[in-house]
Fold each of these.
Amino acid sequence: MTWKGVNVNETKVRIIKAKHNNTSTEQQEVRKKRVVVYCRVSTNSDEQLESLDEQIKYFERMAKRNPDWRLVKIYSDEGKTGTSMKYRHNFRQMLEDCDNGLVDIIVTKSISRFARNALDCIKTIRKLKEKKIGVLFEKENIFTLDSTSEFVLTLLSAVAEEESNNISNNVRWGIKSRLSRGIFSFRDMLGYYRDKDKRVHIIEEEAEIVREAFDLFICGYSPREIADRFMAAGYLSKQGGNKWYPGSMRHLFENEKYIGACAGQKTYSNSFLDRRRIVNQNEQNIYIEDDTHEPIVEKIDYYAANYILERNEIGETRTLPFTGVIFCPKGNQKFRRKPAYYRDGVPQSLEWVCCIHDKRCEGCKITQFKENGLKEVCVETLNEWLADKESVISQLNRELKQLMRYKASGEIVPIRYGMFEIDRGAVERRIKAKRLEHLIDTLKSIRQVEAFDDSVMRVVLTGITVLGKSKIRIELCNTYKKEIIILT
């Protein structure tokens, strides 16, 4: 037989026959599909955890009934939302095992257990299909390696996402309804505990730590400096540890529960999919109730601390002795410290230099000052001032009494995103009075100063103004000023 001039009978087609493996028990085991199970519950309630146990037992029995399956592992996430993969650690571990070629089939109860985000669900399934890994949704009876599965899966994933959105809206409505009726959550915190009837009581030992933190912050210490002082003093946190952090200090100052008030919806979630919390700066209602329990801190001190926070008066810790206190007459620029005179890669001295001068900008001819020289003249000036310490303290006490006689300005300003309204004049007087009291206590405890002590200087040193290449003016407590020549 010929076709297009070619004799078909003479054409030889080679056929490479498929190899059939022996049917030994071990080889049959190798051919079994490696199956993993994924289970999830969205809360840690007893009922949900019981449901998780039932899911695991059900799929274990299911895997045993299927002779072509070999159950490799069961992954489960407890109390995790299905709208995001970010916090579902075991789910992500399962996907990592899939990437490493350890899985053939994933079995799960339903689409909503796998993911409530339609985009994440479809994206993950397509990625798994590229690796020939199928997902079996037992409730919907869908296997993703089937040709008709993706269309149905897309529809059902969108339904699961919308269901999650409805649940989120219902929960949000329930929270707002609870807050509007004055039902607030109250977690354990430093200074308080709740009894079995959920009544709030003060722990006086812890309350003293809270009051000290507020006092130090109002007196000018930064959150980091307060944290360092507490660790050095051996104070224990609510969790029983000795670690204190600047962030936790800021949260303490912002916590309205320390003045006997409760506030709700201080943060909110903008999307039910990412669950990211956003600080509520009056974009949504904030619910506040005063006098819900006994306060630890006076309201005026709480207002003062938050007034300072909002105006960024207190920056991070002043780790260096003259940070932020040396000013150049050229544009009121501050000085910064830099090492000088290197030997074998090691700086032999430290100097303070004007930021403009250091950048070699025109118009500033102020040179640098040696740190040791600045310390010496500060100690000398302080001792001169303390020569008549009683007179100094008397003067400061008169200023304190005069300060307390001033009337409030009457200017009402909001703090903490409008949660509270304060009399600005009253708060500013409180801050000044606290700092004067702290200064007087510090001066009473010191005599002649022999060496530079940063803990003392940070209280009394108001500023150093550079007047020329070798001339500076040192100011102590906004009252005592001295011009002095210093070697550069």
Amino acid sequence: MSKLRDIARMINEYNREKNLAEEFGLYLNEAIVRLYREEKTSRKPSKHYKPSSMGGCLRNIFFQIVGAEIDKSSNISVSEVGMAESGTDRHLRLQNAITQMARLGYPVEWVDIEEYLKRNPVPGTYVTKKGRFESKLRNDVFNLSFLLDGLIKVKGVPAIVEIKTEAGFKFNMRYEPEENHIIQVACYSLCLGLTTSFSYTKIGISAIKNICSTRLRKKISRGSSTSSRTAITTCEKI
């Protein structure tokens, strides 16, 4: 009987420890989501158009411009928070690698955006904040505000760096950028006075694919001249 009691006690202790571990896991997941939501809703977005929104929901653009209250009750999972954090980490690692390429002998130069605009001024465009890699810019002509992942020169030719990360199954089926991403980069081109040619590089652990086509160049040209301007004009009329 004493052996049976010992076994029963061990089972109870195991279940108690297991329940505590599960409770801790639930608490941690909830804390991660709450902290992420706090960070994202702690301040209202500026009342400027965002290139990253130009190809999306017009209603969302309007609410942002009028300074509507942020919906703090919107659901987000701990997995989605993890994906966002992983994307941020990947951005930093890729940007750091790009800044080191010239030192390694590659014909790639990381360009100081503020210095670039001093030498190549664009009406209404200026830097409002510089980070380690990203810079926040504004264009008063189009009332645009955006974070630029980077500006580089490849063999002396200036090019915008815009990094997108996505889940593996989507990445494996990716052969060209999303339409709204093309429009986003078109806005950057518009604000930086760069040509509307566009090259797409797919970077993964075991896959590197380059695509540069006339069709994409035409798409980004249409994006800068129609989609972005139409969205801004529509919101201004409301």
Amino acid sequence: MILWRYLAAATFLVGRVLLRLRAAEATVPLLSAYDGGFKRTGTNPSNLRTAAGAGLRRIPRSHRARDTISMKKSVLYERDGRLFLRTRSKTTDGLWMDDGPCTVISASEQPGTIGAALLEVLSKSNDRVAPPKSWDEQSRPLLDAAGVASWAEFRKGAKCVAVTSGEEIQIRPSLNEGERGFVPLKDDVSTIPVDSDRETVGRALATAIERSR
């Protein structure tokens, strides 16, 4: 009777070990498949989609990029020989707004200095800011830095360049259309690698400023 009890207990323990080994094996394809182009669905065995169940789903590279790379934005204005740089962040309502203080440097600075300033401003962009109490207040740091009373006054003679960073950095010049504001030139965009050094970024910005009008 005692021997039978020992055998039953041993059989039970072996069964538990085998079940755990099978669950662990089921996680291996998904934990290593992300780099091969598959969607990771979690490490909890109860949440895994294995070949024995629904199977692995291959998703396009563009979709994977959106899942893993956050978008950042900034904007640069050139006016009266100075550059005004603002971070752009996404509110919890899904709208983009100018965010934080305004960085001001001379337009005659070396490309590396301008590029470094832009990269610093761009790095502060995020997608979790609260909507402003008043949308007019987002322009206040810029207007104060420029020493003007209104947006209408600031845009006179100003140029604008929009910068977006994701898989790559896109730098887009714009057209100053007065009361309509700055309209991006859709067919005129410079693209540089996301890991470009500050000199490369600065030179691309200078080109975009020249093309803006």
Amino acid sequence: MNAHQQTPTAPNAARARTSRLPLAPTGGGSPGGGPPTVTRILGITGSLRHDSHNRKLLDAAAKTLRPGTEMVLFKQIKEIPPFDEDDEPVPAPAVAWLRAQIAEADAVLIATPEYNGSLPGQLKNALDWASRPYETNVLQGKPVAVIGASPSPGGTAHANADTCRILARIGAHVSEQTLLVPRAFAQLKADGTPASYALRQQLAQVTSSLAAAAGAARQARAA
């Protein structure tokens, strides 16, 4: 059974670690007169620390969502075991839950810190699991954007570039819209609110571009 066919039942602990951020109000129904179409963005942070700058950056991004768009945070990355081909036939529940959440999302927004000049190992490991089986993996054709925050003045340029390169190799549709946030302690408030109008606008550009790509992909599938 490939990743697209899996519909695993996540354990209660897994559901508790997946947070749904408030849905921006919709402006009406779908063009056909049915219920409004909601664009779901899955947020993934490469940092394990609960109060990390990149978790706050995702919270800040969620505050810029346009009407009809919601963000769901995947918070189980710490529980994903190291990638092992021997475990592929029966992946761990956290792996199955990651794949299911990516499959259900219209787009993915990744916020990565930079460790030793690249992306964190736990994020690379999660992407390795999501990429299998390669031919039908849940990231194939999925709109993905990468942003990053760091306390250093150099930001996360290397981590963002490496993450985008890996995603492109997996087959994701990687957005050209990205964002580097240096000196994150000064640019993000404790509650995840951007400290400046400029940062809020930059985040809004990323999320609106990602939502537009998700909408275009949805229309292409329906055509």
